[in-house]
Design a protein that fits this description.
It is built from 4 helices and 9 strands, in the order αββαβββαββββα. The protein is 31% helix and 30% strand. Strands 1, 2, 3, 6, 7, 8 and 9 form a 7-stranded mixed sheet that branches.
Length: 162
């Protein structure tokens, strides 16, 4: 019984340290001139056509490192992404989070301080990403038609802006 109690005490004190130690996954942060971001993890699974597409829509790789588990601005949902310090360093308020599951399977979420963190559970292939990323960026831009590109829309699960 003494060993069992010791094990419980160690687990309670070590669990937060393990969580802070990181996920073991690296992220890649891309940023455009509008200070919007795209965070992709695990970095080692970024395939050529995904990296090429992100570059083709004027996003530059700006930083990478260990992904950390974070919640949305309203303390809802949770996923791996860049640390908050990195987000602040690059003045990024709104960004897309992409988890690469395979060559043609990705999960995409959206972080917006107004809406929080939206994490749809539907998997997307590369073609769906090419269609939905510009739509999401247009939603980030709001009603400024000068900054719009393509047809406004949204990734599945993103709240509508009335």
């Amino acid at each position: 019984m003494k060993h069992f109690i010791t094990l419980i005490v160690l687990t309670v004190f070590l669990a937060p340290l393990q969580a802070r130690a990181g996920s073991g996954y690296d992220y890649q942060l891309y940023k455009n001139s509008e200070n919007y971001g795209i965070v992709v993890f695990p970095k080692k699974y970024i395939f050529k056509s995904l990296g090429d597409y992100i570059a083709s829509i004027s996003f530059d790789a700006v930083e990478s490192g260990k992904a950390v588990m974070r919640r949305g601005s309203k303390n809802e949902n949770e996923t791996l992404m860049m640390p908050l310090e990195v987000q602040k360093k690059h003045s990024i308020e709104k960004f897309i989070v992409i988890q690469v599951l395979g060559q043609d399977a990705m999960l995409a979420g959206i972080y917006d301080p107004e809406w929080g963190l939206t994490l749809p559970s539907a998997q997307h292939g590369m073609e769906a990403m090419k269609e939905n990323i510009p739509k999401t960026l247009n939603i980030f831009r709001g009603s400024n038609p000068r900054r719009q590109t393509g047809i406004p829309g949204r990734l599945t699960g993103l709240p509508s802006r009335g």
